[in-house]
Amino acid sequence: MSNLDRQAALSVCGGRGFVVAEPVRELLTPRHVRLGESTEVRRLLPNLGRRMVGAWAFVDHYGPDDIADEPGMQVPPHPHMGLQTVSWLHDGEVLHRDSVGSLRTIRPRELGLMTSGRAISHSEESPKSHARLLHGAQLWVALPSAHRHVEPHFQHHTDLPTVTAPGLTATLILGELDGATSPGTAYTPIVGADLALTAGAEARLPLDPDFEYAVLSMSGRAEVDGVPVQPGSMLYLGCGRSELPLRADSDAGFMLLGGEPFEEEIVMWWNFIGRSHEEIEEARRAWMETSRFGEVHGYDGARLAAPALPPGPLKPRGRVR
């Protein structure tokens, strides 16, 4: 998924200086951003209040949108570096193409995991014949320095492990949860899980107290640690938790995101994650000169041009504003 904001800001985040070491209940409200021709997303990370949760550095929630008479998602070829993209759907399907030759249709509760490493480009679109509804989330994971120049690759996993309790099914997207391990490749201690609760359910989900966590509400009416969370909003939970109380008033869906606080400071601009302004500047130049990021074959349309860089580098501000 691309960041299509034409006024993309340069931000430096990461480091442990602003990690909340104890449990908190910090409700994050989204920023609404147009994505392509007919999709509007709710951007939860980076947020005015918080930029990262573990290695999770970017979270968009979209839908459910009725696209029966619309083209649906149409994101032209664009570049990435220094990160992984995680595509997660509740409704609809997304056709993924990339510059290493991948061509996959991602469907609900299947993991589409693209590791950009040193450089990749890709496109995402609703197939010409597509379902009526489109609903999902797109997320980025920052790669640590030891792995941020790995060879780019794409993984598609259709059979993911689950953790169950009365009224709760947790599908493991990335990392580990309650003894289950995702087949997706992770480069930092991390967890991502899709939580489905039935109406009236009360459950306690085991957590790692060394991780920081947040919960993204996807659908339904429910409470997370006693806090009502509306669809399209995110509750940041801090660290120091060994379990998470959940209660559903109706059938409800969430995404649990967590991980060890990311120690390195990163510079994130447009669709790149690097370590300096100069590195981002070089990546932008390479994309505009059609070098390094490869070519996406088969997409019917022009690739995205990069926005202009800001007049000067942003000073490090840590994980929060």
Please characterize this protein's 3D structure.
It contains one helix and 26 strands. The chain is mainly β. A hairpin with a 2-residue loop joins β20 and β21.
Summarize the model shown.
This protein is mainly beta.
Q: The CATH topology, please?
A: Jelly Rolls
Tell how many strands the DSSP assignment holds.
26
**Dominant shape:** globular
Q: Indicate the proportion of strand residues.
A: over 45%
- Write down the Rg: 18 Å
Which CATH class? Answer: Mainly Beta
Helix-residue proportion? under 10%
Query: Which residues form runs of ≥5 with pLDDT under 50?
Result: none
- Number of DSSP helical runs: 1
Distance between the termini: 25 Å
The pLDDT mean sits at 92
Largest sheet: 8 strands, antiparallel
CATH-derived architecture: Sandwich
The succession of helices and strands, N to C, reads EEEEEEEEEEEEEEEEEEEEEEEEEEH
Number of self-contained structural domains:
1
Write out the CATH superfamily name: Jelly Rolls
